[in-house]
Amino acid sequence: MPMIKEIIKYAASDRELKMLLDKAYDYAQVYVLAKQRQKGCDGMGEVTNLKDEFQTVLGELFEYCKNKNYISADLLLLDALDIDSLSIEMFRECTS
Prior knowledge:
With about 100 residues, this protein is an all-alpha fold. Helices cover about 70% and strands about 0% of the residues.
C-alpha cells in the first residue's frame, strides 16, 4: 500500500505524526508476530484483541493524516482496509 509510504514521508517532518506512526508500528509488529505464532484455536481471543487495538491506533493515525490533509479521506476508510495486509505492509515499511 503506497499509503504507508506516504505517511512515512510526511512523518519525517511532523513530530506528532512520527509518534503516532511509531505507536502504530509497535502494534503492527506485535499483531503480525502473534498472528504468525497463532496455532489452532485462539481460545482466549488474544489475537482478536491485538487486532482491535491495532485498528484503534490506525484510526488515530489516519484521523490525524486526514485532518492534516496528508492523505485523501477516501483512502482512509478503515472498514474497507484489509487490516492483516496493512499490518504486514506497515511492519515491512517501518523496518526497512
